[in-house]
Write a structure and sequence with these properties.
The protein has 272 residues and is of the alpha/beta class. 35% of the residues lie in helices and 23% in strands. Helix 2 packs across helix 10.
Length: 272
C-alpha cells in the first residue's frame, strides 16, 4: 500500500484512546454505498451492545456524505475517497473541520456477466472501453457482443477513484448507463450479457464475474500490499474531533475484535 495511505492509517486508525461516557442519544450516518455494508453490520452490533443509542444509517454517495458533515445534517460521513480540497475550503468557510478515520481497505473490481469468459483486462483496455473506443468484447478476446458500459454517478467516491486511476481524468462515454450504487451495478451486470461495470470488493458475488487488472486479482493480500492497481482506503469523517456517542462508535469501528470483524465479514479488507 502506498506510503501516504499507511500514514493516514497510522494517524487515524490507532490514535483513539480517550475514554468517554456512553450518553444515551442518536447518531446519524450518511454517505458512501461502498462503506454501507460495513456500517450496516457495525451499526446493528453497536446498537445491540448499546440499546440506549439509536443510529440512523443511509447511503447516497461519498460526496453527499461529506456535504452532510459540512452542513451539519450527519454525525458521521462514510466516504470511499479522501475529502477534496474544495470541500475542505467550504468546510473551513463554515467553521467546520472534518476529521478522517480510515476504517477499512477496498479494491475496485471490474465485473462482467458470469457467461463472459474474459478474465483479465489492462488499465489501458478498461480506459478504452469506458471512453467508448472499444465497442465489442470480441476486440479484447471475448464474445461477439456489443459492450454496454455501466458506471457510477459523479457523487460516488468509487467513480472518483475510477476516474483518477483508470480514466486519468478523461471522460466516460456519454452512452454509459449511470448507477447510483454498487448494488445497482451488480444487479445490472448480472442481468445483461453485454454489460461491464465496476464495484467494491465487498460486493463481489456469484452473479457477476470479477476480472483481473493487469494480470492481478483483487484480493485481501493484493489490496494490502498495494499490487492491485485500483485499491484505496475507506473512511468515516466526523465533524471535528468526535465526542460522546460519535467517539464511542468510531472506537468500536477501529477495534480489531469488534468493528474490524465486520469489515472482514462483509468482504472488505481489515486495517490490521
Amino acid at each position: 500500500m502506498k506510503k501516504s495511505i499507511l500514514i493516514i492509517v497510522s494517524l487515524f486508525a490507532a490514535v483513539i484512546i480517550t475514554t468517554t461516557f456512553a450518553f444515551a442519544g442518536k447518531l446519524v450516518i450518511k454517505g458512501s454505498t461502498t462503506v454501507l455494508p460495513i456500517a450496516q453490520k457495525a451499526v446493528e452490533a453497536y446498537m445491540s451492545e448499546h440499546p440506549d443509542v439509536k443510529i440512523s444509517l443511509s447511503g447516497g454517495g461519498s460526496g453527499n456524505g461529506i456535504k452532510a458533515i459540512i452542513d451539519g445534517s450527519t454525525d458521521i460521513a462514510n466516504a470511499s475517497r479522501f475529502i477534496k480540497d474544495k470541500e475542505v475550503k467550504l468546510a473551513h468557510e463554515k467553521g467546520v473541520y472534518p476529521v478522517p478515520f480510515a476504517v477499512a481497505y477496498d479494491s475496485i473490481i471490474p465485473v462482467v456477466h458470469p457467461s463472459n469468459k474474459i478474465n483479465n483486462l489492462t488499465k489501458d483496455k478498461l480506459k478504452d472501453i469506458y471512453k467508448g473506443k472499444i465497442k465489442n468484447f470480441k476486440e479484447i478476446g471475448g464474445p461477439d457482443l456489443k459492450i454496454v458500459v455501466i458506471s457510477r454517478d459523479t457523487s460516488s467516491g468509487t467513480y472518483e477513484t475510477w476516474a483518477k486511476k483508470i480514466m486519468k481524468k478523461e471522460r466516460v462515454t456519454p452512452r454509459a448507463q449511470v448507477m447510483a450504487s454498487n448494488g445497482a451495478i451488480v444487479q445490472a451486470v448480472s442481468n445483461n450479457k453485454h454489460a461491464i461495470g465496476y464495484i467494491g470488493i465487498g460486493y463481489i458475488n456469484k452473479n457477476v464475474r470479477p476480472l483481473k487488472v493487469d494480470g492481478i486479482e483483487g484480493t485481501e493480500a493484493t489490496t494490502l500490499n498495494g499490487t492491485y492497481p485500483i485499491s484505496r482506503p475507506l473512511f468515516m469523517f466526523t465533524k471535528g474531533w468526535p465526542k460522546g456517542d460519535t467517539l464511542n462508535f468510531i472506537n468500536f469501528m477501529l477495534n480489531p475484535r469488534k468493528g474490524q470483524k465486520y469489515v472482514k465479514e462483509t468482504g472488505y479488507v481489515k486495517l490490521y
